[in-house]
Design goal:
The longest helix has 11 residues. The chain has three helices and twelve strands, in the order ααβββββββββαβββ. With about 160 residues, the protein is of the alpha/beta class. The chain has one domain.
């Protein structure tokens, strides 16, 4: 009879360490179908609803960095000042309405079905236009400062006009 221990996953099995902290946070926020990548970014195989004050503070925790969301991503009504930690790619729509966003620097770079960012009064029209120009959004783009039908967005659009 041989008794061996799997010491490689000991900390992970105890939910200790960065991966364990990430798993605990995801479970607390009802995100169950996910993969934590080697760089600790998170791919999710479901829609993510973090709306209505589910985030403590002005941003996602520093250990949370979403990568790919295979659904929609809703982070409305959280008093966020930054989108740090939000996904790089969303296969449906992305919504960050009713926060206190100061910029769109960490917003997704690819959104399949539209961006909804109304009621973020610190954003400017130039910020919104620059984001649209430097991202791949397929669908409508809405903020209080700017409504753009992406399908009619000219490739030579001057963001400063």
């Amino acid at each position: 009879m041989s008794f061996t221990r799997d010491t490689n996953n000991k900390l992970e099995n105890l939910n200790i360490g960065k991966k364990g902290i990430i798993k605990t946070w995801l479970q607390e926020h009802k995100i169950f179908t996910y993969e934590i990548n080697e760089d600790f970014s998170i791919d999710v195989d479901q829609s993510v609803n973090l709306s209505n004050y589910k985030i403590d503070g002005s941003e996602l925790p520093s250990y949370i960095q979403f990568n790919l969301i295979r659904g929609w991503f809703n982070i409305n009504k959280n008093n966020l000042t930054t989108l740090r930690g939000c996904p790089y790619k969303v296969l449906q729509w992305f919504s960050c309405e009713s926060n206190q966003l100061e910029n769109l620097d960490c917003a997704p770079k690819f959104i399949e079905q539209g961006f909804y960012g109304q009621e973020n009064h610190k954003l400017t029209k130039v910020m919104a236009q620059y984001y649209v120009k430097t991202s791949d959004i397929r669908g409508p783009f809405y903020t209080d400062q700017c409504v753009i039908d992406i399908s009619k967005f000219p490739s030579d659009f001057d963001i400063y006009t």
